[in-house]
Structure formats: structure tokens, C-alpha cells
């Protein structure tokens, strides 16, 4: 019969093997943002990063994107992805810093949010950046406007030529 002591020992052994926080992490990241905003309503930001821990492991991660907590998904072993969208008129240009937290850091972050404290004081496990150069919103003059303007010019030239020929 399994006793509570056996369950406790197995839990402690499991947690010492899998619950260690990631130390001395080496991060490599790449990012993607929407570059053409002519037919979309939101700009998408995606950051994918690989984490190689010197000691410990990273099983769950949480992201803080300029004050907003965003979920982080594990796409492959030791590879994670965070993504979010913003409306075109609110989309930011330049470097966007993403602070990433493990379980302990996320707990401290949530505690700071509940207490209405400054969350920038909570130190992240590591940070990555997403570079967004901006999105193309289309040409200054729309093709419909150019077509109408060209039609007016052609009609004017045709009518003025006709009046010169008839006179």
C-alpha cells in the first residue's frame, strides 16, 4: 500500500529533477511582424526563441509585453513562441522589449499586479526584442482617384479637340 511518505518522496524527487529554474540561459531569437497593412486590420508580432539552460530547465514561460502579460507556447523542446496583435493605428515601431519569466517570476509579477505595484521592479529570467520597422499602408494616391483624374483629363482633351475641329 502506498503511504503518504512514498508520495512525498516521489514528489520531491520529481520536482528536484524537473522544477529547477533555468540558470545561465543562452537565448537565440528571431521575430516576424506584419509589414503590409493595406488589407489587414491588425499588426501581428511573433517572436520565436530557443533557450539552452546552463543548469536547470525551463518548462513554462510567461511574457510581459510592455505591461501586458501574454502566454508563451512551447513549439518544440526548448523552443518557445510568443505572439500578439495590435490595431494598425496603435501599432508601435522600433524595438519592442519582451520580458520573459519562469514560474517563480510569474508569481512575483502577478503579486505586483494585484498590489498595483510597478511591475518593472520584478526582474525577468531573460529578455528578447522584436524589431518592427512599420507597416506599408498603401500609396498616397489611391488607384481609383488616379483613374478618375485621368478620365477627367482625357475627357477635357477630347472635348477641347472636338470644339477646335468644329470651329
Automatic annotation (TrEMBL):
The organism's taxonomic lineage, starting at the top: Eukaryota, Metazoa, Ecdysozoa, Arthropoda, Hexapoda
Organism equals Photinus pyralis
- Quaternary state and interactors: Heterotetramer of TRAP-alpha, TRAP-beta, TRAP-delta and TRAP-gamma.
Signal peptide location: 1-21
Main subcellular location: endoplasmic reticulum
* Superkingdom of the source species: Eukaryota
- Could you say which protein family the record assigns here? Belongs to the TRAP-delta family.
Task: Indicate yes or no for the key word Mitochondrion.
Answer: no
Q: What is this protein called?
A: Translocon-associated protein subunit delta
Q: Which Pfam families match?
A: TRAP-delta
How is this protein positioned relative to the membrane? Single-pass type I membrane protein
Alphabetized, the UniProt keywords read: Disulfide bond, Endoplasmic reticulum, Isopeptide bond, Membrane, Signal, Transmembrane, Transmembrane helix, Ubl conjugation
| UniProt subcellular location | Endoplasmic reticulum membrane
InterPro entries (UniProt xref): TRAP-delta (IPR008855)
- Cellular-component GO terms for this entry: endoplasmic reticulum membrane
Q: What does this protein do?
A: TRAP proteins are part of a complex whose function is to bind calcium to the ER membrane and thereby regulate the retention of ER resident proteins.
Keyword Manganese carried by entry = no
